[in-house]
Each structure stands twice: as C-alpha cells, then as structure tokens.
Amino acid sequence: MNKSLRNTGFYGGLLLFTLFAVFPALWGVITVFKKSADLYTPTADPFLYHPGPTFSHLSYLFTSTSFMTFAMNSIIIGVCVVAITLLLSVPAAYALARLSGSWGARSGMALFLVYLIPPTLLFLPMYQVVTFLGLADSIWGLVAVYPTITVPFCTWLLLGFFKSIPGDLDEAAMIDGCSRFGAFLRVALPLALPGIGACVVFAFSLQLSDYIYAATFITSTGSMPISVGVPTQLVRGDVFFWQSLMAADVIVAIPLAIAYGLLFDKLVSGFQSAETSATHA
To answer: Any idea what the Cα angle at residue 94 is, between residues 203 and 105, rounded to 5°?
Structure first.
C-alpha cells in the first residue's frame, strides 16, 4: 500500500511537472489557430475554439511577411557558425585534454569564463569590429561574431568528452602506425561524436535565439535573421500579431526541443566530465 502511494505520488508529481514544462508550447500551438475575436474575448475558454479554428494567421506569416527570407538567413548563419565552431573547438578541446598536468583543465575553465561575459557588455566593441571589417548590415557580420560565444563553450564542453577517452587508445593507434592527427581522426573523434552533436545543436540554437547582436548589426529586412525579423514585422507599435508570432515561435522551437531532448544525456555527461576535470585541476 505504501509503495503504491509512493508510486502514485511520484508519477503524479512527474505528470504535473511535465504539463508545466509543455504548457508554453501547448499554449503557442492553440493560439496559432485562434481567431482574433476568440483571442480577445475575456469570457471565452482559452483552450477551446469558440468561432472555430483558422489557418489565416499561419498563412499570413508565410505570405505577408518575409519569414522565409528570415529563416533562410538563420539557416545560412547557423550552418556557417556551426562549421567555424567545430573547426576551432574540436582540435582545441582535444589538445587541452591531452595537455599534461592540470594546465589543460585550467585553460578549459578560462575559456568557459570567456563565454560567461554577457553580450550586453560586448555588442558595442563588437559593432566596431564588424564595421572595421566592412560586414555591417550583413549576415556575415553575425557569422564573424557568434563564434566568439560558441567556440569557448563548445571547447569547454568537448574537453570533458575527450578527457573521458583514455589516452592509451591514442598511444595504441600511434604504435600501430598512426600519426597523432591520425589517432585523433580515427580514434578520439568517433568516440566524441555525441558531444560534437550536442555542440552542433547548441551553436545552431544560440544564433537562432540571439537578439542583441542581430538587432545591433542588421538594419535591412533582407539580411535579418528570425530573432529580429519576426518581431520587426509582427509587432507594429501597440499592435501585436499574436497568432503569427506564436506560429513563428512554434515552428522554430519544437524542432530544437526535440533535438535537445535527443541529446540531453550527452549534454549532461559533457557537463559532468568537464566539471570533474575542472575540479581536479
């Protein structure tokens, strides 16, 4: 009896927590298909469609705004940022993990501290750098800036994954004739693929959610990513196109939530490994 009560309490609490976590996404999906009269009626049930659902707001997002342009800009920026991040952070994390003594872990923590500097302190000097490079009002300015955030974090995260791979495997590969780079490519890199996947999701989602840099560096509609373009076109003074805003939010958020859910264990294991290596530094 006591075991049944404990199980009921456990699963009941888990259900409540799940509903609490899913509620924002559920509310967004419901709002997308509501008519304006239903949305602004105080006595209407917020979970029901009293005049009936409509697809007009979803259609408005795709036909009357530049949402597809914003989405394409975000995809281009995200792919470039992910490529630059992996190109720099993967070899850096491997080198730090194989660095003898405690300097590797300490250097990893120093990189992570760079990630903790808030963008509100950096967007003005970064704008000067972007202007100097001639990349202002261009998606390439964001491609140049975002790796300054993603590379330190991903290097710190991957440091934990490479630390968990025994160095004896590298030495065995080199005894068999591999170079140091060959051992990295054939042994360490495949074993670190889950961590690399987590870094891909993190780097891509960061540029999707950033507003400060995008709003500072981009002014023309044709170069705006989703984070700036959608609110610019769907918030006009005191008029909010709530249903279309929610549609854009759901379209972006749900795939990212699925990706984070699939890689959640890898993220947690990377955090734990990196924290362990920092503790022993």
So the answer is: 90
Give 112-130 pLDDT, tens digit per residue.
677 777 877 888 888 888 9
Task: Name the domain count of the chain.
Answer: 1
Strands (E), the chain: 235-236, 239-240
d(CA 108, CA 43) in angstroms, rounded, equals 55
240 has which bridge partners?
235
Q: How confident is the model at residue 82 (pLDDT cuts 50, 70, 90)?
A: very high
Structural domain contains residue 18:
no
Tokens of 247: 């549609």
Residue 200 contacts residue 82 (beta carbons within 8 Å):
yes
Backbone angles phi, psi at 239, to 5 degrees: -105, 120
CA 57 to chain centre: 27
Confirm whether 64 is domain-assigned: no
Check if the beta carbon of residue 204 is closer than 8 Å to that of residue 150: no
| 3-state SS, residue 236 | strand
pLDDT tens-digit readout, 136-182? 889 999 999 999 889 988 888 888 788 888 888 888 888 888 888 88
Q: Give a yes or no: residue 200 inside a domain.
A: yes
What are the tokens at 99?
């660095």
